[in-house]
């Protein structure tokens, strides 16, 4: 049985992950954390998310070290915010707990802090900006398109719900990195455009973030040439798409002793070459 702890337990992702873990035979939630001073601290997490009692009281992140020592999870799943995630990863790694990290919006310094904590403590982690299986196929398709159409004008547009705190999305940034690595010419990322921008340069990859309503997550990459364009779009209509990938990642990382992995590793997509 894989024992799982969740940080961001009552959030949009955290609550759905707990619901889905509760339906699996090979894993169970042993600890769940929210922000310090949370008004529901101590209440049963299952009841709080509407699935009935699961015997796990809501803890707060200031208790993370103590509760991890007491409940001894194999894996901590983090869907919080970047600054909280960095601290959670440091504490979990020191306790020898493996990680599945879905949080986005990290600075380069925060990414480095996370990698350092994981490596220094010899734990294993899956880090992915998007756990949806379809998005990972979308990323793979971008490798192909960037190789074939690297000199086309490339623009990325993403749209998310009004509550999203970071922009552009982690997925849009990952898409840009994949294109940059595969297009065969220099790239410069341009975030939005305004004013007298001058003529578009070949090396630009435009990245544009839209926010509104309850949009779960839409990403489009446009390859615009002379007289034609290709638009590749992924639309998530339910967070279950991400949650299903998280469940696969928990099983994957439970078998790994150390190392940092991504969803291409989890889904076996690294072998596909164009
Ligand atoms: N990789 C992927 O596939 C996906 C990634 N994401 C990313 O996951 C993250 C969370 O998204 P989402 O679930 O929509 O956001 P929510 O705001 O719904 O959930 C985040 C939760 O974390 C809580 N939280 C904040 N700080 C801490 C802390 N120190 N310890 C414990 N809990 C904390 C928040 O509490 P409070 O509200 O009180 O601040 C909130 O309940 C975002 O970065 C998002 O981009 C989202 C979907 C898919
Ligand atoms: O905050 C969200 O909701 C999402 N965040 C991730 C990101 O930033 O790419 C993944 C998904 O698009 C939903």
UniProtKB/TrEMBL annotation:
The segment(s) forming the Dihydrodipicolinate reductase N-terminal domain are 2-131
Q: One Pfam family this chain carries?
A: DapB_C
Q: What is its EC number?
A: 1.17.1.8
InterPro entries (UniProt xref) = DapB_C, DapB_N, DapB_N_CS, DHDPR_bac, NAD(P)-bd_dom_sf
What does it catalyze? (S)-2,3,4,5-tetrahydrodipicolinate + NAD(+) + H2O = (2S,4S)-4-hydroxy-2,3,4,5-tetrahydrodipicolinate + NADH + H(+); (S)-2,3,4,5-tetrahydrodipicolinate + NADP(+) + H2O = (2S,4S)-4-hydroxy-2,3,4,5-tetrahydrodipicolinate + NADPH + H(+)
The UniProt entry's GO biological process terms, in alphabetical order, are: diaminopimelate biosynthetic process; lysine biosynthetic process via diaminopimelate
For this UniProt entry, which residues form the secretion signal? none
Q: Which residues bind NAD(+)?
A: 8-13, 34, 102-104, 128-131
**What role is this protein assigned?**
Catalyzes the conversion of 4-hydroxy-tetrahydrodipicolinate (HTPA) to tetrahydrodipicolinate.
What's the name of the protein? 4-hydroxy-tetrahydrodipicolinate reductase
Record the organism: Methanocaldococcus vulcanius (strain ATCC 700851 / DSM 12094 / M7)
Q: What is the lineage of its organism?
A: Archaea, Methanobacteriati, Methanobacteriota, Methanomada group, Methanococci
């Amino acid at each position: 049985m894989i024992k799982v702890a969740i940080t961001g337990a009552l959030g949009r992702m955290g609550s759905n992950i707990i619901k889905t873990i509760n339906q699996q035979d090979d894993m169970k939630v042993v600890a769940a954390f929210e922000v310090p001073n949370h008004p529901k601290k101590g209440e049963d997490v299952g009841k709080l998310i509407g699935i009935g009692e699961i015997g796990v009281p809501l803890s707060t992140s200031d208790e993370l070290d103590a509760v991890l020592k007491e409940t001894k999870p194999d894996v901590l799943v983090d869907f919080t915010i970047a600054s909280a995630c960095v601290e959670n990863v440091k504490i979990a790694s020191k306790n020898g707990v493996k990680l599945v990290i879905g949080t986005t919006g990290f600075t380069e310094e925060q990414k480095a802090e996370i990698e350092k904590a994981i490596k220094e403590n010899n734990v294993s982690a899956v880090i992915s900006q998007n756990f949806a299986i379809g998005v990972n196929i979308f990323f793979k398709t971008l490798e192909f398109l960037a190789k074939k159409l690297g000199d086309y004008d490339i623009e990325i547009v993403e749209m998310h719900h009004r509550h999203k705190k970071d922009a552009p999305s982690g997925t849009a940034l990952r898409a840009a990195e994949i294109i940059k690595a595969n297009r065969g010419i220099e790239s410069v990322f341009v975030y939005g455009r305004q004013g007298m921008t001058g003529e578009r340069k070949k090396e630009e990859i435009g990245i544009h973030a839209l926010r509104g309503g309850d949009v779960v997550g839409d990403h489009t990459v446009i390859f615009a040439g002379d007289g034609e364009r290709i638009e590749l779009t992924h639309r998530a209509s339910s967070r279950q798409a991400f949650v299903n990938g998280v469940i696969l990642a928990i099983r994957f990382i439970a078998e790994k002793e150390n190392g940092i992995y991504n969803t291409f590793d989890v889904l076996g997509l690294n072998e596909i070459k164009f």
